[in-house]
Design a protein that fits this description.
AAA family ATPase, DNA_Rep/Repair_Clamp_Loader, 2 domains, P-loop_NTPase
Length: 317
């Protein structure tokens, strides 16, 4: 089994197009984050330009992704030190790519431009890219990786052929995690599957973060409430006093997954669950830019879950 599950149909469409007389010049690789779209883009680009197997960079494959945050971080990169990434793909990067398009491909007659993720293009960068998509140079092909296609300009989407990458079913996810994470306990794997929403990459990240105990406490709150706030305290302890941003993001994703799994068991009015889910979506959206206090965030998540439990009890009464 391979971590790149669910790519069969995408490969079939891509290779059929390569064998056709007029291959479309721009492709949108769409699906949840963690489905291997970036890996597909790199492999497909290498096939397109005729690169030999291996990991060596190819001069006719250009990838635009998040660069250093500023000049200070760029110097760290140049010195081989860890550096902080920018939150967006900037217009200067697109302009640099367009300068490359004024020259012919180096080793053949085709060139691939990968933008990963295209969702994070600055507005000006997206407008600049649109000009290249409208008048692509001969032999140039664009692969735009996107986790949220709706964030792209409609004019960009309309110029691309879409390859959709499906979410992975729970049984395949369980087999994959069993193969790739043999040392993880079952509760951690179950928590990862619940949080990942069909994304193998996300599930593997969640296993590494060891969310089994967090998931267990969340389910306890949903099932029996938390009248004395003790479970909310346990939730805060399982999250940790000083979790990093990745762990907090994973906890929020897990809470949404636990709620979604509860939907079928809800009796009567589902408004409490819907409200809780909306609030978790809001918190998740804010997490990349807000500095949350871990304890307060745990209390807020626990209160939302306890509210759903209380609503379920009233419906069953």
């Amino acid at each position: 089994m391979t971590a790149l599950l669910g790519h069969g149909n995408a490969w079939e469409q891509w290779r059929d197009a390569m064998q056709g007389e007029r291959m479309h010049h721009a492709w949108l690789l769409a699906g949840r984050k963690g489905l291997g779209k970036a890996s597909f883009a790199q492999a497909a680009a290498r096939e397109l330009v005729g690169a030999e197997p291996g990991d060596r960079p190819h001069p006719d494959i250009l990838t635009l992704t998040h660069g250093p945050k500023d000049d200070k971080e760029d110097k760290k990169r140049a010195d081989g030190k860890p550096f902080e990434l920018a939150r967006s793909i900037r217009i200067a990067q697109v302009r640099g790519m367009q300068q490359r398009l004024n020259t012919r491909p180096t080793l053949g007659d085709k060139r691939a431009i990968i933008i990963d993720p295209a969702d994070d293009l600055e507005r000006n960068a997206a407008n600049a890219l649109l000009k290249s998509l409208e008048e692509p140079p001969q032999g140039t092909f664009f692969l735009l990786v996107t986790h949220r296609p709706a964030r792209l300009l409609p004019t960009i989407r309309s110029r691309c052929r879409t390859l959709r990458f499906p979410e992975i079913g729970e049984s395949d996810m369980a087999l994959l995690l069993g193969e790739l994470t043999p040392d993880a306990d079952q509760s951690t794997r179950d928590a990862a599957i619940a949080a990942a929403g069909g994304s193998p990459g996300a599930a593997l990240s969640f296993v590494a973060l060891d969310l089994g105990k967090v998931a267990q406490v969340m389910r306890q709150i949903l099932e029996s409430g938390d009248a004395d706030f003790s479970k909310r305290g346990a939730l805060a302890a399982s999250i940790g006093a000083r979790p990093d941003r990745n762990r907090l993001q994973a906890v929020l994703d897990l809470a949404r997954g636990v709620l979604a799994a509860r939907l079928d068991a809800i009796q009567g009015d589902p408004r409490a669950l819907i409200h809780a889910h909306e609030e978790l979506v809001r918190l998740t959206r804010e997490a990349p830019t807000f500095n949350y206090d871990a304890g307060l965030l745990a209390m807020e998540i626990g209160t939302l879950l306890a509210g759903v439990a209380a609503a379920s009890e009233r419906a069953d009464a």
